[in-house]
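Retry 2 of 3 after timeout on previous attempt. Resubmitting structure tokens to design endpoint.
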């Protein structure tokens, strides 16, 4: 058995038993994710313990735009004054209840940030944006350096520059 993060394959990956404790995130991976993938509104990556096809965790990524006025001045002052700026949305991230506390959340977050950074070398993005489902999720993201948007504290951002520095430290 070996842990693998793979693009969701609805013919192979079993999502029917996935349960993270948040109904909307469970329904999403069971019913909506493959549609979003097909319609290209999100990419969906799942963690499995290969060859077992059960989904242990998942996250989604999409292209996104942010309005410069919602950014903190300290971050915004280094950015071009365009009204809309490019970003990468980490729309959903969830770990199955039976798997919690095994650092799978961290593993998935780091993998998502690595993919966002890599993609940004081809299509620019100045930050990863996370949408938190509740206060616990906000604390989880803050732990990894995300900052809350002042106008909407359930939305958080991590500048791509910080993500690049993080991976630079990990793989100098
Ligand atoms: C939040 C979630 C992704 C964390 O996954 P996990 O695999 O249990 O967490 P990990 O084992 O990777 O924990 C990594 C670190 O985050 C901390 N952490 C985990 N869940 C946390 C939470 N809800 N709030 C604050 N910190 C949290 C852990 O204590 C650990 O910290 P440490 O380095 O000090 O030990 C998972 O609990 C989950 O799926 N929750 C429901 C859905 C959700 O909230 N998704 C988030 C975005 S919408």
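Retry 2 succeeded. Sequence:
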């Amino acid at each position: 058995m070996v842990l693998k993060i793979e693009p969701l394959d609805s013919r192979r990956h079993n999502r029917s038993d996935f349960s993270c404790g948040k109904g909307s995130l469970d329904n999403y991976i069971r019913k909506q994710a493959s549609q979003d993938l097909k319609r290209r509104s999100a990419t969906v990556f799942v963690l499995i313990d290969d060859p077992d096809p059960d989904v242990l965790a998942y996250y989604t990524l999409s292209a996104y735009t942010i309005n410069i006025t919602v950014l903190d001045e300290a971050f915004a002052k280094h950015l071009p004054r365009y009204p809309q700026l490019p970003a990468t949305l980490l729309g959903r991230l969830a770990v199955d209840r039976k798997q919690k506390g095994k650092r799978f959340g961290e593993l998935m977050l780091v993998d998502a940030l690595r993919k966002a950074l890599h993609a940004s070398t081809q299509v620019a993005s100045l930050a990863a944006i996370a949408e938190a489902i509740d206060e616990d999720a906000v604390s989880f993201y803050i732990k990894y350096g995300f900052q809350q948007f002042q106008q909407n504290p359930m939305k958080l951002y991590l500048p791509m520059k910080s993500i690049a520095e993080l991976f630079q430290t990990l793989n100098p």
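Attempt log closed. The domain at 2-170 is CATH 3.40.630.30 (Aminopeptidase).
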